[in-house]
Amino acid sequence: MARATIIAASLMPIAAGAAAQDVAMTFDAASRRLETTSPALAAADHAEDAARETAAAVATLRRPVVTASAQYIEYQKTLAVDLTGQKEDARDATQDFLSGIPMTVPPAFQQIASDIVGRIGQALPGLFTAIPDQLSYRYRDDVFRPTVQGVLPLYSGGAIPAIQRGARAAAEIAAARAAQGRDLAQLNLIRVYFGEQAAAALAASARESRDALDRLLSDVRKMEAAGVVAHARTLEAQVARDSAERTWQRAAIAHDGARGDLARLLEVDRVRPTTGLFVVSHPLAPAGSFTGGEARLPQTRQADAAGAVARAGVDLARSRYRPQAFAFGEYNLNRSNALPTEPDWVAGVGVRYTLLSNVDRRHALNAAKANAAAADDAAREARKSAITATLRAWDLVESARRAFLLTDSSLAAAQENLRVQEIAFREGEATMTAVLAAEAALATARTQRAAIAYEYDLALAALLSASGQLDTFADHIAGADIHLPTDARP
């Protein structure tokens, strides 16, 4: 007992000093702070921005692609021409020509002409031998080639629209994931924020039980000194008080851990929630009023967008069966220094069709169709799951509401029972066991009240999240007619 008392006494100044530095924060303020401090939310927003920028980038795929390039080229060209056949043809033609010359002169001069032709005929082989059998020409130069090229897609077989639709659907997936991340972060905040409230209530209840048993132990000691009760009753009270002390210490440590979780989540040193656990005493709207909005749920939006991506994949796979048409052009900006074979400019249209691909297009199309069917089935399943989750959450909210309303009478009865048992014990008409049982019943009633209120708040958050209305959670807080106090803290 002495050790427990020393530990408790040492904990109290530390807790008091820490409480002096607490930052009071409502749930709305905590929600706003989470929006600015959560790395997960920031990452989801960046991913959404990246997906939207990607969709904007491919939205202009139908525009022409215009590029400018410049090249400096140093080249050498060698040309070789075979003259063997031409030499033989020329020699034969010359011989034929010379042999016909004597016949074209008067008879008196034919002998002289024949002698001249004979001498020339004898000299012809030597003349033609001087002509090489092959003529070679080598040219070396440098060229600067600045050009502008342009390509305009005319028909892509459906590939461009499919890519654009897929990019827009991917952006929707990123947006849905960001929304789902915000919902999860909000649910986690609700769990941690009101969990700190529940831990505080449990610690406060444990402290009240410890203090009550402290008073009971003091009374029993006085009664033992007066000879009214036996020493065994004092030992029984001592055991109960020590047990309550241990329970309080465990609850205090758990509460301190809950406070630390909330502080780390909001990135502050210490925080004290000022929005207490709450319950709406009147029933919620019928469960059917929370269904029907499945299309706006993040998980459903993701499934629908995934289906759009899959259908775009089907169109893209079909486009591989179709031809592609494009227009192209090129203009040489330095025509005076161009290669001999280069045009000044060129323009035209082209068609390209894949006759044989190293990827089986039929199997690729079948795979895309299977992915689209799977995505459609997943979207339907997401809607069914959302409806089921909504109805279950509504049942949990209603169950917690009814259970909480019953705690009022239970708490009042436990308080009255303890008061009666304590009076009866002092008068000698009740046993110590009855008093301890009454105190335990009161502690149970207090903890159940806080626990059920926490259960109600979590179930309500789950219901609103499942029905796509989590942003109205603050409205339910404002409209609640039962708020547990936040000042009764350990």
Description:
This is TolC family protein. Pfam families: OEP. Belongs to the outer membrane factor (OMF) (TC 1.B.17) family. Its main location: membrane. By secondary structure, the protein is of the alpha+beta class. It has helices at 2-19, 27-37, 39-58, 84-100, 107-129, 159-225, 231-266, 298-319, 361-426, 432-466, 473-479, and strands at 23-25, 65-82, 134-155, 271-273, 278-279, 324-332, 345-352, 482-483. The chain has eleven helices and eight strands. The strands form three sheets. It has a four-stranded antiparallel beta sheet. A two-stranded parallel ribbon has the order 1-4. A two-stranded antiparallel ribbon has the order 5-8. Helix 2 packs across helix 6. The longest helix is centred in the middle third of the chain and has 67 residues, at 159-225. The model is unreliable at 1-20 (pLDDT under 50).
Key attributes of the depicted protein:
490 residues, single chain, disordered N terminus, alpha+beta, 11 helices, two-stranded parallel sheet
List the helices and strands and how they pair.
Layout: H1 2-19, E1 23-25, H2 27-37, H3 39-58, E2 65-82, H4 84-100, H5 107-129, E3 134-155, H6 159-225, H7 231-266, E4 271-273, E5 278-279, H8 298-319, E6 324-332, E7 345-352, H9 361-426, H10 432-466, H11 473-479, E8 482-483
Parallel strand pairs: 1-4
Antiparallel strand pairs: 2-3, 3-6, 5-8, 6-7
